[in-house]
Amino acid sequence: xxIEKIEPIALQSGxxxxxxxxxxxxxxxxxxxxxxxxxxxxxxxxxxTIRDAIAPAYIGRSAMDRAALNxxxxxxxxxxxxxxxxxxxxxxxxxxxxxxxxxxxxxxxSALLGGAKRQRLPVMASLDKYDDxxxxxxxxxxxxxxxxxxxxxxEAPLNVIEEARRTVPRDVPFVADSNNAHTLxxxxxxxxxxxxxxxxxxxxxFWPPEDLLAMANMPGVPVGxxxxxxxxxxxxVYAKVPAIAVLQPDVCMLGGLSEARKAVAMVEGxxxxxxxxxxxxxxxxxxxxxxxxxxxDEGYFAAIEPADGRDMYGIGIPRWQPAIDVPTGPGLGFDxxxxxxxxxxxxxx
Length: 349
Hints:
The chain is of the alpha/beta class. Helices cover 37% and strands 17% of the residues. It has helices at residues 40-58, 66-76, 85-105, 109-112, 133-145, 158-167, 184-189, 191-196, 232-238, 257-269, 283-294, 338-344, and strands at 3-13, 16-25, 30-34, 120-126, 150-153, 174-177, 201-203, 223-225, 244-247, 273-274, 301-303, 323-325. Strands 4, 5, 6, 7, 8, 9, 10, 11 and 12 form a nine-stranded mixed beta sheet that branches. Strands 1-2-3 form a three-stranded antiparallel beta sheet. Strand 1 (3-13) and strand 2 (16-25) form a beta hairpin. Helix 2 runs antiparallel to helix 3 and helix 5 (133-145) runs parallel beside helix 6 (158-167).
């Protein structure tokens, strides 16, 4: 299974910017991967990095050597940083190789990862940022009406998060992601109010996150973080911190499934809860479903807000619902709809 061609694909559907990689072997097998991409400038950088930096390191090599190739590329580009654009771009090719190997062996990615422990995963409705109590309340009510089993808001003001908590029943797991908006002093000053939220976990609570390294446990306020980490080694440093209850491996920011599987195993071994970060609708979403399926304990698939032009497989990944099936077909289980790729290809818009 010699890699013959690697093609980055830039897609734009409304406000959604995507970067995929299509990898083709000399035998004709095709696999798809994805980067984490939210903005057009990031899209341009990731597209060029796949094409000009990552692809040349893979062409002519065997897809079966995906884990060794992942490490080799990390070493080759380490002087440009061990997290960020290069590692994110690397993920798209790595995921595609897992897809190819699964197809070649007639096995799902879950099987390649050791075997699925569950065939359906509960869905967490993950809201956009609204910064408005009325809007957050209304959107949460819509999310809960779909039967979603958990809810997550991306808000910073404590009063907005408190309004969200009043909207979400106490028996529904609730996550607040503040995207590092606060300081540790802010959190300490209002510790009683944060504790009263009864959070499943408080994601990325403050800046700088390094302050967590010396932070004592904060009873009733479990902290989650790590979606921006680029390696298992970086995540392992924070796995030792008492205040951190949850670590969030992101299959793209970690550089693909080859590294994400190691990160999940490390987090479980450290006695922390792995909660894979899943802001995806494409191949990385499928890869994350497989990763969640083989984890020791059941976790949520956090689905971003649904909108037209986001379902590239026609299986309802970008939809709030009670649960989602783990693909069982070879490789990732599905290929993107060719019509979707043509319709939203940036080169044709």
